[in-house]
Every structure is written in structure tokens, then in C-alpha cells.
Amino acid sequence: MKRSKKRKGKWKTLACMLLMFIITGYTSNAQENSEGDFTLETKVVDVINDPVFEGYGRLIFPVDRTISSDLELKDLEDILIWYHNVNPERTVEIVNYMKEHAAAGEQIFYDIYTEEEKAEDPEKENTGLFFFRGTPKEKFAVVNAGGGFAYVAAMHDSFPQALELSKKGYNAFALIYRPGAQTACEDLARAIAFIHEHAEELQVDVSDYSLWGGSAGARMAAWLGSYGTAAFGEEEYPAPGAVIMQYTGLSEITGNEPPTYACVGTRDGIAYYGTMEDYVSRIQNQGTDAEIEVFAGLGHGFGLGEGTVAEGWLDHAVSFWERNMSKR
């Protein structure tokens, strides 16, 4: 009987220890989840309000769209009108990338306007550059999201492209601009000026830079490439080595287009692929390098095109940019 009581006491003690281990482990995991990585179920507002993004968290998502307090990262496509093929896993990767680098003390966001300029025009508060660092002293790209000049769809239309460019070693900036064709181009001109003026601090090579964009953002890239920064209120800076355009129905030709790569889907109801083919053909007729990829059955706003017939277009665009380096 005594041995039996001893065994019971021993097992009771082990059971208590196991229970405490489970409780402690659960608490630790819960704390790690709340303080660690963002997940598909993370609320968008929780990302915006994370202290690591103090001062600019709101600009990670469209400030001109209503964001419900219940909206989760996995459902971001709900507010990105005109866009398709939004990849929730990619969204989570991007916000975790941002948090990791910001928490490590890296500056991932840069104002392009001074405090005085923002005080004079409060709309300039909602502008800036998110920096996806590549190899120090490597060339840079500025990526401009679309959104019909009504909002900035960066999480699908510029952040993913910028992140992929950084993985290839290039320094990539995603511009958050004021919606409106004129103001957006003014902000892009300022961004180009800012990067040139702070090239040493940013550790970027300003030669043969490229301008990227989707939809409205593609128009911005094309206009700055053709008209130059002086046309939009800044000093004249060198033209880009290449313009990379996704799904936009731009048609005017100035005769001063940089080398241009374009891509679009045949089922795009916003940017007709025939218009883009004609645009590229007219640039080629000027003796300027230009090419277009047309993807069968694809609609508007496919972003990186992951899981679609367009997957891999970014690699082709990078190759196009690289072959036009040092040609201007």
C-alpha cells in the first residue's frame, strides 16, 4: 500500500509538471504570436498601428480607401478595386519584411517633402518612398503602383515588384504619391530628385536607373521618362535607362521615349492590349529598343502574375533593363 501511494504521488507530481509545461508553452507561443510575425489573420489596422512603423504605418495600405477594423491581411483584395490575382502570402511576406528591417534599425521609409512643404500642402503628408534595399552602390528602380489615380495599390502593384528587385540585388523604391495625374507625376519627379540628391546616403548608383509602374503608375513612369523631371517642377535630372510598363492604355508618343518594356493581358477590359502593342511598335519605329509581352486570357492588374501565364514577366523586364544599361 505504501509503494502504491508513492507511485500515485509520483505520477501526480509528473502530471502537474506536464500541465504547467503545457500552460507555460501555450502562453509563450501566444506571446510570440502577438509580438512576432504577422499572419494571414492579422488585422490590417494592427499592422498600421504597430509601433515599429510609427509615423508611416498608415502609408503601407491605401489611405484613400476605407479600411474596416475587421479586415485581415488575407482579404486585402476586398479593397483593391480593379485588381486581381492578389496573393495573400505575398502580402504577409512584405509586411514581415518591413517589420524585420525596421525593427533592426534600418530606415525603410523616407519623406520626399520637407516639414515646411507638408505644412503648406497637407496632402503631401501622404507621400514618401519605401526602400527595399539591394546591394550597396547598385542601380535603383522606382516602382509606381496603379489605382486609377484614385488610390495607391502599393501592396499588390509596387511592393511585390520592389521586393523581387531587391532580391536580385537592385535597390528598389516604391512611391506613395498623391492621387491625380498631375500631382502623382510631381511626386515622382520629386522622388527622382530626392534619390539623386541623397545617392551617397542611400548608397545607390543613379546611372541607368529604371522607372516601373502598373496601370496609372505605368503612365507616371512613361510620362517622366518622356517629359523629364523639369516638366513637373524639379531640376532636370537624367532620363531613366528603361521604363517598365504594365497594363495601361497610353497612346501618345513624344519622340523622346526611353527604352520601354510592356506587358498586358488579352482580357484586360481597362487597358486594351492592341493599344499597348501599337504604342510599343511606334517606339520601335523611332529606333528605340522596346518590346511587349501579351498574355492570353489574362485580365487587368495581375501584379507579379504568380500562378498565371504571366509568371516570370519580371525576370524578362529585368533582362530588358540590363541590356539597355549605359546605352543612353
How would you portray this structure in words?
- The protein is globular, with a radius of gyration of 24 Å.
- By secondary structure, the protein is α/β, with parallel strands linked by helices.
- It has helices at residues 2-35, 44-48, 88-103, 115-120, 154-157, 159-167, 181-197, 199-202, 216-227, 273-285, 313-323, and strands at 109-110, 128-132, 138-144, 171-176, 204-214, 242-246, 260-265, 290-295.
- The protein has two domains: 1-35; 44-323, Rossmann fold (3-Layer(aba) Sandwich).
- β7, α10 (273-285) and β8 (290-295) form a beta-alpha-beta unit.
- It starts with a helix and ends in a 5-residue tail after the last helix.
- α7 (181-197) crosses α9.
- Strands 1-2-4-3-5-6-7-8 form an eight-stranded mixed β-sheet, with helices on both faces.
Helix segment count?
11
Could you tell me how far the N terminus lies from the C terminus, measured between alpha carbons in angstroms?
Answer: 95 Å
**Spans where pLDDT lies below 50 across 5 or more residues:** 1-8, 10-34
- Label the CATH architecture of the largest domain: 3-Layer(aba) Sandwich
Broad structural category: alpha/beta
Largest sheet: 8 strands, mixed
Tell me the number of structural domains.
2
Overall average residue pLDDT:
91
**General shape:** globular
Number of extended strands? 8
Beta fraction of the residues? 5-15%
How much helical structure, as a percent, in the residues? 25-40%
Order of strands across the main sheet: 1-2-4-3-5-6-7-8
Q: Any idea what the radius of gyration is?
A: 24 Å
CATH topology of the largest domain, anyone? Rossmann fold
CATH H-tier superfamily of the largest domain: Alpha/Beta hydrolase fold, catalytic domain
